[in-house]
Amino acid sequence: MRFRFFIIDDDPSSRKMLHNAIEHEDLGDVVGEAEDGFGAEASIILKKCDIVLIDLLMPKQDGIETISRLQEMGYEGKFIMISQVEHKEMVAEAYSKGVEYFIHKPINRIEVISVIKKVMEHIRLERSLEGIRHTLSLFDTLPKEPPEVRTTPFIRSVLADFGILGESGSQDIIHLIEYLLKRYRNERVKEFPALKEIFTDYVTYSSATDVQREVKAMEQRIRRAVARALQNLASLGLEDYINPKFEMYASKYFDFADVRQKMREIEQNEEVSRVRLNVKKFIFTLYLETKEHT
């Protein structure tokens, strides 16, 4: 298999040197580049990158913060940090975040190729060991459930785009989508039943003691998270109507008339919203998108 690389560096010449080194040595494919870590996380996850080459110091979001955000979103690839030798404290912090490999500036082509090859060999070894463990597990006589596809990174990337990953309802959304993917594993679903029925089924499945109370609490948490997502999306539309995230999510996850109404309410500083929040559409769309990407 070919390795997939993503390069993040605010210096265009550094990005070009790294890109050229990878292509000239045919080490793999550079599937994306960014001049800052801020906003690059979703692309890295969606493009299933194996290795991220990332600058330590960048203007909006430095390399360490970007790595932390990616790890929170479930990314499991490898990082190669590009750093200045004098930033020893930050290098030490990078080590604590799990960064094992460094390329020093000014960039040296030979060092770049050598470090990348070491990382690639490390990945191959890890995958080989994982293959051995999987083979050995086949000899286990105990019945096993079918292996589950890792869905959490994609769901987290979408919720992060909406700016609600820190909301308490986001964890409910993640668990609910994963439950629905199990429940409808071999079915084509054109529409979900009523939300309350879905919540009740999930809470019952998760062995909650007081089902009715937990359903109500879960519904409130999810509703608050989706309302916050709409608020953030509408604010984004007011700032930049042609923002790619606004164009991608506005009519897909919400009724566009509701998005426009929320934008008007924000512009006029209205305290009471008249938007009838379509939580079911949000959940169903996220379910379909997640199923498509796994």
Automatic annotation (TrEMBL):
Keywords assigned: Phosphoprotein
GO biological process, one term: phosphorelay signal transduction system
Presence of keyword Phosphoprotein: yes
Modified residues (4-aspartylphosphate): 55
InterPro entries in alphabetical order: CheY-like_superfamily, Sig_transdc_resp-reg_receiver, ST_Response_Regulator, YcbB
Pfam families in alphabetical order: Response_reg, YcbB
Ranges of residues in domain Response regulatory: 4-120
Extent of the signal sequence: none
Protein name: Transcriptional regulatory protein GlnL
Originating organism: Aneurinibacillus danicus
